[in-house]
Design a protein that fits this description.
Elements (H helix, E strand, L loop, with lengths): L2 E4 L3 E4 L4 E5 L13 H9 L7 E7 L7 E7 L5 E6 L42 E3 L5 E3 L5
Antiparallel strand pairs: 1-2, 3-4, 4-5, 5-6, 7-8
């Protein structure tokens, strides 16, 4: 889940927002003069950028206000949030890590290389109850 910072309400969970498409798409000056192909390009053709991308978002379950966001489409890092009508900010994009972002530690749960440590949680010590069944030590009847 993304944690999106609404300019009006503060940080909220991604489920409170709706994606509104590419930001900064200018409306045609004379839409009645467009042919069918030009009108279709305005309505349906959008950039499919790999990297930093300007998007429109609606805080649909909060303040119900639209805003723009610069987000990296590869890493999902939110680089800037700014109001509608404001120009796209110049954000310097940091260099991507060479080996990815997952932890390579032996105890990492994101790499799946090691089982969790369960020492001290074992219930192997058992005792036999009067009925002959085996129960964990310290269990009551």
């Amino acid at each position: 889940m993304l944690l999106i910072s609404c300019p009006n309400c503060g940080s909220r969970d991604e489920t409170e927002f709706h994606y509104g498409g590419q930001a900064h798409v200018p409306y045609p000056e004379n839409p009645n003069e467009l042919n069918d192909r030009e009108w279709a390009e305005f309505l349906f053709y959008r950039d499919n950028t790999k990297g930093t991308f300007a998007e429109r978002w609606l805080h649909s379950t909060g303040c119900r206000q639209w805003f723009n966001m610069l987000r990296d489409t590869v890493t999902y890092d939110i680089q800037a949030v700014y109001p509608m009508g404001a120009p796209r900010p110049d954000v310097r994009v940091p260099a991507a890590p060479e080996s990815g972002t997952a932890s390579l530690a032996a105890d990492s749960t994101t790499t799946g290389t090691s089982a969790p440590d369960i020492t001290g949680t074992s219930i192997t010590a058992t005792s036999t109850t009067e009925s002959g069944t085996t129960a964990p030590e310290g269990a009551t009847k």
